[in-house]
Write a structure and sequence with these properties.
4-stranded antiparallel β-sheet, mainly beta
Length: 324
């Protein structure tokens, strides 16, 4: 049953109605099996929160060659997509070294983990593919080819939602993680590049490079698609010009306090914004005196650290203890 067109609030309220249906599971299966079953004679069967599972991939650790996206797991690991080696790596956040991996048939790009499932946006198949915690293919979100260009994704484990940034459709597709159903779409962008969510506030943040020759921006929506606020790439502009702007946003992240971390590829910096001064960064992370970022593509907040994929140096780089 397709649920497109309904308001997200109605869909979330209706989740228990579909959560208790058992279906076959296996490679190429669009709906994923539910291991939790309804108790006898219980009408309202709400599934428990997804299990916290340790990712354990069959392949060896690999040296980074072309790291693209980075995401965190509930158990503290980093997941990194490697386009050159066509693999997803499990990375230690302390050493920034990969100790395990699994391969992907195609060009893995976006990545995230929710419960015991790893979601991988494959640019070759135009699909968000789903793997188990051991790196075995178990299905996909929506249908094969349903996401034109899965640029980035983010997950909300408590709500059981996967937010996929589609670079072709230029919007955010919201999927129900348990069975891959498309619930809704959010926003309309020009050149979207990155996405993150803030589950505690129900917010989605998207970086948009904008039109050629035009201003880039960061836009924040609520889960139901309501506009919340934006940050202009032009920065604060006055009679003497503009300051604090950005032009080439590669990705974005957000912490629990609502601060936005904008990775600008041209400046090779992470610009940190808060809600009080939305168009002027309160902090700039650029590796001054120690040029860390070379062709940076993604940023993620990990505790008090900020981690960035640096493609030209074939590495992950971390700004340690920079957050309060």
């Amino acid at each position: 049953m397709r649920l497109q067109g309904f308001a997200l609030a109605v869909l979330v309220a209706a989740l228990p109605l579909v959560a208790c249906t058992d279906v076959p599971e296996g490679p190429g299966t669009p709906l994923f099996a539910k291991k939790d079953k309804c108790k006898p004679h219980k009408e309202d069967c709400t599934p428990p929160p997804p299990p916290v599972v340790e990712p354990s991939f069959p392949g060896p650790g690999l040296e980074l060659i072309s790291p693209v996206r980075v995401a965190t797991t509930a158990t503290g690991w980093l997941l990194v997509t490697e386009t050159h080696q066509r693999a997803v790596l499990r990375v230690d956040p302390t050493t920034l070294l990969a100790d395990q991996s699994f391969t992907v048939d195609g060009r893995p790009h976006a990545v995230g983990m929710l419960g015991d499932r790893v979601f991988v946006g494959n640019l070759s198949t135009h699909t968000v593919e789903v793997y188990d915690a051991q790196g075995r293919a178990v299905g996909f979100l929506g249908s094969p080819g349903s996401v034109g260009r899965p640029m980035d994704l983010a997950v909300d484990s408590a709500a059981g939602l996967v937010f996929v940034l589609d670079g072709d459709a230029r919007n955010v597709k919201v999927f129900q993680a348990a069975d891959g159903i498309l619930l809704s779409t959010i926003g309309s962008f020009v050149t979207p590049t990155g996405i993150a969510v803030r589950p505690s506030a129900g917010e989605v943040v998207v970086s948009d490079a904008g039109p050629q020759g035009g201003d880039a921006s960061v836009v924040i929506y609520s889960y139901d698609g309501t506009f919340v606020t934006s940050i202009s790439g032009a920065g604060d502009c006055g009679m003497l010009g503009c300051s604090g702007g950005f032009s080439t946003p590669a990705s974005v992240s957000m912490d629990n306090l609502g601060r936005v971390y904008l990775l600008d590829m041209l400046q090779r910096s992470v610009l940190v914004y808060d809600r009080a001064t939305p168009n002027t960064p309160v902090q700039t992370l650029d590796g001054t005196g120690n040029p860390l970022l070379q062709f940076p593509l993604d940023v993620v907040v990990v505790g008090g650290d900020v981690v960035v994929t640096s493609k030209r140096t074939h590495s992950l780089e971390a700004f340690r203890g920079v957050l309060p």
